[in-house]
């Protein structure tokens, strides 16, 4: 009889910060479950992780269970890699021809050295890895880092009609008739004029994302960083096309829950792990400590979004005019025309009113007692972290899955305001005052209720907790 091998999972994220963030957390969860993990990055992102995070010390508590590998993305080392360190915005559609041979060689060499991988968990927009796994006789699981609502929207695209009226109903969700919830054209990637102007969501990129969504069905299972308790109607529709779906999120909350009893107190500090590609400026936490409870608006547009100087200043004046304190993440390269497009005079505000940093430990910021609202691009990581912390959102999406998420946040969960396609200082001022004032009381109740839903889902017996245990069981039982 063939000897049973210990599970060894290769995790392979798409080379952008939001994707790496989620899949590193999954790697930690698998290590906590005694599953060996090899985490594969591009060379460029591998070096940034080593430079800006505590990844080595963080995973040192799993001796023999975690290792890092890297692979070329086809661009020279000195390439500037804008927009989240992609070689360029169209290269994402051609990574298969660049990476597939290197991925195949890595898998074969590992098989020779240590018995090989028993499963590949690949990013769901890099489905060429599923083909490589099939060729080499290895189980594959697709991991999509978007919400179930957005995944459902991509699955629905072949049935949608384009049109001029962006506020016309474009997509209804079966099973949600009582909520009277629907997506307008402006809520879907590629329909809004603003998003069509963005190279992040050109027609070709949109078509690629739709194709990869359907290609994910070639894997043996699908992982989504969400919970049944939040996105049940969307997950029900996804399961009509994917026979096995694991909804195991929010991953950062699940990791907190599973990490606590297994890690000695000396290693289990209150600070959150940094999964990012930017160096965090933790001085902002000291600034928050000096602010009154629920008095600060946190502003961050994520790791990829780029604003014009005009948009930047409309937000700036709207925030200043609102009268509230704010903590603003102004990432290098986040302003079109370069950082020289503004001067310090444009940001003249007393230190007690505002704090500006290049990058912040976001999970800790959102969990701080001083933070009362979050101005966000509606990335899925940011949305999950905000909901878990019961912080209401002001949503200003830029591209990709963000317009879908902002609609769900504002109209379904009612834990924020969807401000898409609007950018003027008076609207910013009015919206900040409304959200910081609790939205008439309803928003405060909704954010508290959603945070409790998240807490229950990742606790023992919760839907995400149970789905994760089922995933671990599959990874362990599938070994040959």
Automatic annotation (TrEMBL):
<comment type="similarity">
    <text>Belongs to the UDP-glycosyltransferase family.</text>
</comment>
<dbReference type="InterPro" id="IPR058980">
    <property type="entry name" value="Glyco_transf_N"/>
</dbReference>
<protein>
    <recommendedName>
        <fullName>Glycosyltransferase</fullName>
        <ecNumber>2.4.1.-</ecNumber>
    </recommendedName>
</protein>
<keyword id="KW-0808">Transferase</keyword>
<dbReference type="Pfam" id="PF00201">
    <property type="entry name" value="UDPGT"/>
</dbReference>
<dbReference type="InterPro" id="IPR002213">
    <property type="entry name" value="UDP_glucos_trans"/>
</dbReference>
<dbReference type="GO" id="GO:0080044">
    <property type="term" value="F:quercetin 7-O-glucosyltransferase activity"/>
</dbReference>
<feature type="domain" description="Glycosyltransferase N-terminal">
    <location>
        <begin position="9"/>
        <end position="252"/>
    </location>
</feature>
<dbReference type="GO" id="GO:0080043">
    <property type="term" value="F:quercetin 3-O-glucosyltransferase activity"/>
</dbReference>
<dbReference type="Pfam" id="PF26168">
    <property type="entry name" value="Glyco_transf_N"/>
</dbReference>
<dbReference type="InterPro" id="IPR035595">
    <property type="entry name" value="UDP_glycos_trans_CS"/>
</dbReference>
<keyword id="KW-0328">Glycosyltransferase</keyword>
